[in-house]
């Protein structure tokens, strides 16, 4: 991963209010932690943990939502406000319940899978428009949805919320997770319904809150009838996700004074490494990350972080070695493979870089860093058609559909008609032309 604060996966969608742009935080370590926390909940919901991604949005407000049946989005601000793994798992359980209960079937955008580049940009543009209260913009962004249909698009009905509460609590109980976590989450939002809409937290706008909901959730938690001991694995991964996220989003001084608050030696060293790296102290950053690696030598995410520190310190060849070790330990992780490919590209190993970047893209086509690097590598190799379609997809995800169309048209003229890459260009053209029609 690149430094979360400086090189996040930026969708930076073109909104009427740019400050409301949606930015995904893509970090293999944090996403692994969220997968570990979500797995028992998703299994209890009858959903595949391998299919449903838990993705983080860079937003200090507290919210979580679903776009389609394959992704749950959680704001970074909500993660940082959670005090226990059970609290975060209760949020995941509630969103999983919306998927399992079929609440997305009424949403037209669900027909276009958000795993594709153009569709993800369109979907998150709708999210951003809805969150900003800009209904008219969101109408256009969400592939032609109109009027009241869009205004309620991301706002669940009270009946859906009640059903998701009941199902989510059932999933938590089946997974052996303390239901009091859900009560604690609801307590964070107490009083929201009394506020005007523009003062409510995003969660309150998309998930109707009420005293009745709080009472029902409390009653369901009390029905569990016993205190559930925290799962050690969930406790560890919760601490790791929150620690790494805060280390990149808080000041280095703040991080260093709290590095050991969770009681895990490797997490303490990881946080110190991030803080020292952000202070441009390479010697101390490497000493800290090497200490963490010594405690967990087969942890690919620590090797990946070591690669990031070296890469951003312009130590290219040592970075390549660190990323190679991470890729060897996690050969199926798209974000790690993408980072390795990026390092290889910086080391002028272009052909090898393409191999790893293409594998990464095929596993996760939503990371614009991978698309950018793969386009650059293909251009260096003279594969201009492929470079153009990758650039078109990158602009589509960023919401820059006018620019995306230019590159998609170029790709269409350069690529073999009917090929997979040519078809990807047509997907981008479809999204761009639909946006043009909306604006006329």
TrEMBL record:
TPR repeats lie at residues 300-333. Keywords: Hydrolase, Metal-binding, Metalloprotease, Protease, Signal, TPR repeat, Zinc. One of its GO terms (cellular component) is membrane. GO terms for biological process: proteolysis involved in protein catabolic process. Residues 1-21 form the signal peptide. One of its GO terms (molecular function) is metal ion binding. PROSITE patterns: TPR. Its EC number is 3.4.-.-. It is an enzyme of class 3 (hydrolase). Pfam families: Peptidase_M48. Its cofactor is Zn(2+). Binds 1 zinc ion per subunit. Residues 28-219 form the Peptidase M48 domain. Belongs to the peptidase M48 family. This is Beta-barrel assembly-enhancing protease.
């Amino acid at each position: 991963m690149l430094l979360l604060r400086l090189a996040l996966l930026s969708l930076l969608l073109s909104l009427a209010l740019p400050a409301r742009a949606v930015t995904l935080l893509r970090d293999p370590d944090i996403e692994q932690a969220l997968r570990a926390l979500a797995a028992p909940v998703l299994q209890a919901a009858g959903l595949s943990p391998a299919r449903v991604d838990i993705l983080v949005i860079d937003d200090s407000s507290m919210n979580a939502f679903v776009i389609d049946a394959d992704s749950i989005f959680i704001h970074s601000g909500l993660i940082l406000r959670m005090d226990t793994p059970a609290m975060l798992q209760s949020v995941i359980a509630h969103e999983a319940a919306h998927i399992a209960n079929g609440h997305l079937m009424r949403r037209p955008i669900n027909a276009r899978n958000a795993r594709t580049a153009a569709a993800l940009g369109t979907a998150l543009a709708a999210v951003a428009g809805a969150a900003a209260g800009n209904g008219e913009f969101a109408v256009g962004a969400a592939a032609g949805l109109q009027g009241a249909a869009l205004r309620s698009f991301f706002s669940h009905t009270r009946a859906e919320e009640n059903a998701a509460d009941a199902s989510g609590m059932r999933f938590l109980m089946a997974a052996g997770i303390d239901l009091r976590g859900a009560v604690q989450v609801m307590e964070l939002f107490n009083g929201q319904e009394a506020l005007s809409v523009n003062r409510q937290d995003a969660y309150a706008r998309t998930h109707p809150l009420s005293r009745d909901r709080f009472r029902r959730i409390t009653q369901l938690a009390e029905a569990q009838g016993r205190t559930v001991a925290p799962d050690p694995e969930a406790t560890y991964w919760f601490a790791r996700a929150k620690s790494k996220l805060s280390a990149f989003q808080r000041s280095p001084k703040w991080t260093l004074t709290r590095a050991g608050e969770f009681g895990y030696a490797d997490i303490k060293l990881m946080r110190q490494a991030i803080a020292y790296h952000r202070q441009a102290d390479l010697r101390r950053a490497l000493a800290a990350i090497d200490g963490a690696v010594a405690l967990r030598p087969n942890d690919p995410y620590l090797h990946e972080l070591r690669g990031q520190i070296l890469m951003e310190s312009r130590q290219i060849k040592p970075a390549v070695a660190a990323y190679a070790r991470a890729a060897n330990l996690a050969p199926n992780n798209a974000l790690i493979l993408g980072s390795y490919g990026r390092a290889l590209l910086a080391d002028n190993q272009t052909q090898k870089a393409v191999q790893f970047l293409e594998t990464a893209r095929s596993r996760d086509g939503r990371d614009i860093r991978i698309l950018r690097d793969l386009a650059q590598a293909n251009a260096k190799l003279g594969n201009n058609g492929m470079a153009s379609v990758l650039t078109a997809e990158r602009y589509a995800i960023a919401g820059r559909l006018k620019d995306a169309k230019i590159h998609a048209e170029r790709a269409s003229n350069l690529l073999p008609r009917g090929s997979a890459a040519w078809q990807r260009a047509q997907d981008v053209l479809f999204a761009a032309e639909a946006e043009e029609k909306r604006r006329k």
